[in-house]
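User
Here is a favour to ask of a fellow structure person. I am asking you to supply a protein in sequence and C-alpha cell form. Please set it down just below, with no commentary around it:

Assistant
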Amino acid sequence: MAPTENSPLLSNNNNNGDQSLPMHRPTSYPSRFSPHAPPGSPNLVSSMWWLFTSSWLNILLAFVPLGFIAEFLHWPAIWRFSLNFLAIVPLAKLLGDATEQSSLKLGQTLGGLLNATFGNAVELIVGVVALLQGQLRIVQTSLIGSILSNILLVLGMSFVAGGLFKSENTFQQTAAQASGSVMTLGVVTIAIPAAYQGSIRMNTLFSQGFDALKSLDDSDSTLDGLLFISRGASMILLVIYVLYLVFQLKTHAFLYEAEEDQDEEEEVAMMTPVAAIIGLLVVTVITSFNADYLVSAIDETANEYHIPKAFIGTILLPIVGNAAEHVTSVWMASKAKMEIAIGVSVGSSIQIAVGLIPALVLIGWAVGQPLTLYFQSFETVVLVASVLLVNTLIQDGRSNYIEGAMLCSLYLVAALSFWVEPDM
C-alpha cells in the first residue's frame, strides 16, 4: 500500500509486512468510513460519485454555494464568515480523501509528493490568501493554531479516547522520539527570531531608555534583521523537511515498517488516479475562493462582535481545517490504533512547522510581503511549552487518559489566553 496523506507515523498494522508508512494522517479503512468498492474497476463517473457521497460530512457542501452567494450579494460580515467557515469543513475532508486515493495507484514516491503538497492544503490555501491580502497576523496565528490544535487537542482527545477502552496503549517509541526531535527543531527555529528581537529590545532599553523602544519597533534595521534570519532559516528548514521525507520514505523506512496483521482489511481503490487528481484540483480551486471570502470577512466580524483576531486565527480557523482529522484520530484511538492517532497530530504538525511555515515566508518574499518567523513572545512561549509537554508524554511509547487530559487542559488554557491577547 502506497503512503498517503493519511498514512500513520508509527505503524504496527500492514497487510504485507514489508511496506513503510510515512508519518502523516491515517490511512482510510473502507469497512468503517466508506462504502464497499463498486463492482468492476472504478471509472471517472463512479469515482466522482464516491468522492462526494462517501461521508455524511459532505452534507455540509451545501454551505459552499451559500458562501459564494453571501459574498456576491454583500451579506453582513458575520454571515460571510460563518457560511464560508462551514463550507471549508467538508472541502477539507474531500481533499484528504482525494489525496489518499491518488496515492493508492501512483506509488510511494508520487504518493509522498502528493502528501507533502496536499497534506495541509486548507492551511496552505488560507495562508496564501491571507498573505496576498497583507493579513500577516492571520497567517501567523492560523499556522500556530494549527500546530497547537494538532499536538494538544487532537492528540489529547485521542489519548483520552484510547484510555477509555484500554488502561494503557503502546506505540513505537523510536520513531516517536525521532519525529518529536524534528518537531522540536521546527519550534526552536521559530523561537530564535523572537529571542533576537527580545535581545535588541533589552539592549536598547538599557542603553537608551524606554523612549527608544517605540522607534526601535518601527525601524527598518530591526525588520531587515528579522527578514534576513527568517528567510535564511526557512530555506534551511525546507532542506531538513526534504531530508526528513527521504529519511522516512527511503533510507530509514524500516523504522516505520508495520508488523504483519492478517486480520487487517486491504484497502480498496475507490477512484481512478485521473479522477482523484481532477478532484484534488477542483476542490483546491473551490477551497481557495471560500478561504478568500472567509479571510476578507475576518476584520469586520472581529470588530463588530468584539472577537479577538488572535482567537479567530489560533482557535477557530484550525478547527475548520482539522475537523475531519479530529474525528478520524479519535475513532482510531478508540480502536487502540495509537500509531495512527499520533500520525495525525505529530505528522501534520511537523509538516506545518518545518514545511508550510518556511514555504509561506519564502512566498511572502516573492510577492513582496514581509512575513517573518518572528511570532509574538506569548505565542512562541505557548508553542515551545506545548512541544515540550508532548515530547515528555510520548517518549516512553505509552499513553493513557490522564496524559490526554493534560494535553487538552493546556489547549484550553491557551484558548482562554488567546481570547484576551491584544491584537497586534
In short: The two ends are 47 Å apart (CA to CA). The longest strand covers residues 169-170.
